Amino acid sequence: MATQEIKLHPSWLDPLRSEFEQPYMRELKQFLLSERQRGRTIFPRAPNWFRALDLTPLDKVRVVILGQDPYHGPGQAHGLCFSVPPGVRPPPSLVNIFKELRSDLGIEPSPHGFLKHWASQGVLLLNSVLTVETGQAASHRERGWERFTDAVVRLVNGKRDPVVFLLWGSYAQKKAAFVDTSRHLILKAPHPSPLSAHSGFLGCRHFSKANAFLEERGFAPIDWALPECAAAE
C-alpha cells in the first residue's frame, strides 16, 4: 500500500510508513482488490479500516484492548474492536463486557454498543485483523494484517508513558506477549464471548484496575460509562 493512498493520523502514519512500503502490505492490498473484483463484500468499509488509529492517536494511547477479527455480520464492523455503530444491537461479547462494567464499576449496561467514547479518551480498540468477508469469520487471517498490527502494538510498547493492556483470551495474550511488563500493566482474562466469559472474564475487574493504575501514575482515569445517545461517526 502506498502511503499517499492512506488517510491516517500523522502520529501513526509517520512511524508506520516503512510498514506500508513492505511487500506484504502490497500483497495484502492486491488480495483485498481481487476479493472485491470477485464480488466479495468486505467489512468494515475501506474508510474505516484504520479507524481505531484515527480516533486514538499514538501519543494519546492510555489503554489497549485487542480483538481478533471484525464482526462479519452486515452493519456491525466499523473499525473498533468489540464496537458496533449506533442502531446496531450489541453482540454477545459486548453484552458481557457491559455486565462486567456493571459488576466492577456500577455502570448500567448501555442500550447501544458504540465505543467511540472510549477511543476518544485514549482506549485503542484494535483488532489483529482489520478486514473480513461478510459471513465468513476469520476469512482474512494470515494475509498480512497481523504483521501490521504487531507493528502497531510495538509502537505502543515503546511509549515512555505507561499503558494498560487488557488482554482477553489466549489470542490477545499471545499477540502482546512481548510487551514490557516493567513499564506497562498487563491484565489478562478469558475472552468475553458467551463460551468463556464465565471462566474468569466476569469478575476480572479490569476496568477499575486499569483506572487505579492510571491514577496512581498521575493520569486521568477512563470514563467507561457510554453516553446515553450514541453520537454518529
Automatic annotation (TrEMBL):
Q: What is its EC number?
A: 3.2.2.27
Catalytic reaction annotation: Hydrolyzes single-stranded DNA or mismatched double-stranded DNA and polynucleotides, releasing free uracil
- In what residue span(s) does the Uracil-DNA glycosylase-like domain sit? 54-214
Question: What's one GO MF term for it?
Answer: uracil DNA N-glycosylase activity
- Which PROSITE patterns does the record match to this protein? U_DNA_GLYCOSYLASE
Cellular location of this protein?
Cytoplasm
A Pfam family per the record: UDG
Q: Which CDD domains does the entry mention?
A: UDG-F1-like
Q: Catalytic residues per the record?
A: 69
- Origin, by domain of life? Bacteria
- Alphabetized UniProt keyword annotations: Cytoplasm, DNA damage, DNA repair, Glycosidase, Hydrolase
UniProt lists the family membership as follows: Belongs to the uracil-DNA glycosylase (UDG) superfamily. UNG family.
What's the stated role of this polypeptide? Excises uracil residues from the DNA which can arise as a result of misincorporation of dUMP residues by DNA polymerase or due to deamination of cytosine.
Q: Tell me what this protein is called.
A: Uracil-DNA glycosylase
What organism does the record attribute this protein to?
Answer: Sphingomonas anseongensis
Q: Which gene encodes it?
A: ung
